[in-house]
Write a structure and sequence with these properties.
Blueprint lengths: L9 H28 L1 H21 L19 H8 L7 H20 L2 H7 L1 H23 L9 H18 L1
Helix pairs in contact: 1-2, 1-6, 2-3, 2-4, 5-6
Length: 174
């Protein structure tokens, strides 16, 4: 998987930081909200998040950004850093990547959907805010980061962005 990686600029990093604001608001808000019901719910969400990061780490082997600045899958994961710790001498393996990518994609859904019941029980309008913040994160992150990433033909997030971009171009051209 040798390729000349895109060199991230200061502007790219600022856009990344700005795209994280909605995610951080929703994640921290959800952690606090779940803790009002039970600390175990908060712990479960954090364990799911950690598992998602470990699975993401299995996808980072072979990535040109491993151990450096990396926006990672949707920009909210520590896989890039964990990959160097968990798999310091591993080479890219497509089967290992595919298993981790599938598991990571499932865990993204688990992390996003797990708290919805308690968010709804707190107030139905919070579900709308929750979903809008996630959408705001994706809408600000994917075009500014996935578009430029040198790993976007392999990374599940990059593939999702490429599919969205093709769909948007198709709809815009119609």
């Amino acid at each position: 998987m040798e390729q000349d990686p895109y060199q991230w600029t200061t502007k790219d990093k600022w856009l990344y930081f700005l795209s994280l604001v909605p995610f951080l608001v929703v994640f921290i808000g959800t952690v606090v909200l779940l803790s009002t019901y039970s600390i175990w719910l908060t712990i479960m969400l954090l364990v799911f998040y950690l598992l998602m990061n470990v699975l993401q780490a299995g996808c980072c082997m072979g990535c040109p950004y491993r151990g450096k600045y990396c926006p990672a899958l949707f920009g909210v994961y520590l896989g890039n850093l964990l990959s160097g710790i968990l798999y310091p001498n591993w080479e890219f393996d497509q089967k290992f990547f595919d298993r981790n990518a599938a598991g990571g994609e499932i865990m993204v859904l688990v992390v996003a959907l797990f708290p919805l019941y308690w968010v709804y029980m707190t107030g139905w309008y919070l579900v709308l805010i929750y979903l809008l913040l996630i959408a705001a994160h994706l809408v600000t992150f994917m075009p500014t980061q996935c578009e430029k990433c040198s790993y976007n033909e392999t990374c599940p997030g990059g593939l999702a962005w490429r599919a969205c971009r093709a769909w948007l171009k198709e709809k815009g051209g119609s």
